[in-house]
Design goal:
The chain is mostly helical. Helix content is 81%, strand content 0%.
């Protein structure tokens, strides 16, 4: 598994990993992770319901579903770097806009801009990693996603302190500093298109001829039943993942009565565990492909049930570990499933559509849980339904065969799957 080819590929492409890590930390993680921490304050200031407040996440991810498809095609034509610069700027502007948010309409507009930034960054990094890494794709994506793990450690503590010190508006705007001072200067002034060695037309076969970037060819792939099985599965786990992320602060603080500092520490602990497990989850996917993805989906479901008893400190620790593992899978699965099944041709469009499916799940999960809470007054039923949805996602993948991945294992270079 970790042979010479594997290690050489990772070592030779360290600049790509650095770019991906920085973008995932500042352009993707910070805007996404701070959102749940502003809900208690906006509810207090504006008198909104939980459903109204958490619809910010739904606006973000519904936008992301549309943008993912558009950006996937755009990347195939103009490249990753230019897209990353544009979407990172949109995310920074969105965070600054909270300084002047007067009501729901402007609040949701900020969510739309965050959706552009989040989906755009995610699709760009997935394409970049998929084109650059072949033997070590899952591991490389896991390393890149360490940016989100570190973000999960730093952002909860930072935003809690900033909100308590400066208020939710100024505190949110301050977290845009990483975009303006690190991510954008790195891509604009210190890197150029030649740095993105993987940002080139994918190989179609062993002859080395470039594959044609074609919407018609991508459309043919999307007619396959396996494509829609993957789409349904990643939608389902996206549903479960964001249902927890967007409600865990409200659940742990308001329903379980835990202190703000304890909750922030616990959520940061998820990030600390994620630093360890994210590359390991990627390695599991490299080694076992679809079977590995299904196994981690089961752990995601188990985390839903453990959350019901999270008031106990030992159960809370188990919840932290399971959430870290499950969250790692959600952010890695689309990249691995798409490439392992269909190969590299039209990977931008394919990953764009699948990321759109994930974003639809991200949008639906928080709204569903908020609606269930409004109807029942608790999170119990919603969390149990989320556990069932996670198991169903794993079962949907049973017929999916990783044809391209199997060919890679035998031939040691990327070739197109044979129907």
């Amino acid at each position: 598994m970790f042979d010479r080819v594997f290690r050489k590929e990772l070592s030779a492409n360290r600049p790509i990993l650095l770019v991906a890590f920085i973008c995932m930390l500042f352009a993707f993680s910070a805007p996404a992770l701070l959102i749940p921490f502003i809900y208690p304050d906006v509810i207090r200031e504006f008198g909104w319901t939980r459903e109204q407040a958490t619809l910010l996440a739904s606006a973000k991810y519904l936008t992301g579903a549309v943008i993912a498809i558009v950006i996937g095609r755009f990347i195939d034509v103009v490249g990753v770097r230019r897209v990353l610069i544009v979407v990172s700027t949109a995310g920074g502007i969105a965070l600054l806009s909270f300084l002047w948010t007067p009501g729901l309409a402007a609040y949701y507009v900020a969510g739309v801009m965050l959706g552009i930034a989040g989906a755009g960054t995610m699709v760009s990094i997935k394409v970049l990693i998929s084109r650059t890494f072949h033997e070590s794709q899952g591991t490389a994506m896991g390393i890149a996603m360490l940016g989100t793990s570190i973000g999960t450690v730093v952002v909860p503590i930072a935003i809690t302190y900033l909100i308590e010190t400066f208020g939710w508006r100024a505190g949110t705007a301050m977290l845009s500093a990483g975009v303006w001072l690190v991510a954008l200067p790195l891509m604009i002034f210190f890197l150029n298109d030649s740095t993105f060695d993987g940002d080139s037309p994918p190989l179609s076969d062993a002859t080395g001829l470039p594959a044609t970037v074609s919407l018609n060819a991508a459309g043919e792939l999307m007619k396959k039943s396996q494509f829609w099985m993957i789409a349904v599965a990643v939608f389902a786990v996206g549903f479960v993942d964001q249902a927890f992320i967007q409600h865990q602060v409200l659940y742990l603080r308001n329903d379980l009565g835990l202190s703000a500092a304890y909750v922030a520490t616990g959520i940061s602990a998820i990030g600390l565990v994620g630093i360890v497990v994210r590359p390991l989850v990627g390695a599991v996917f490299d080694r076992w492909s679809v079977s590995g993805v299904r196994f981690v989906y089961y752990l995601l479901s188990l985390g839903c049930l453990v959350a019901l008893s999270a008031l106990n400190p030992y159960v809370f620790a188990a919840f932290v570990v399971l959430r870290a593992i499950g969250h790692a899978a959600v952010l890695l699965d689309t990249t691995v499933l798409a490439k392992h099944t269909f190969g590299l041709a039209n990977i931008g469009v394919i990953l764009g559509v699948l990321t759109a499916a994930v974003n639809l799940g991200f949008a639906a999960g928080p709204w569903f849980v908020a609606r269930m809470y409004a109807n029942t007054g608790s999170y119990g039923s919603a969390f149990m339904i989320c556990a069932v949805v996670g198991v169903m996602a794993a079962l949907v993948l049973l017929p999916v065969k990783p044809t391209y991945w199997l060919q890679q294992r035998y031939f040691r270079y990327p070739i197109q799957p044979v129907d």
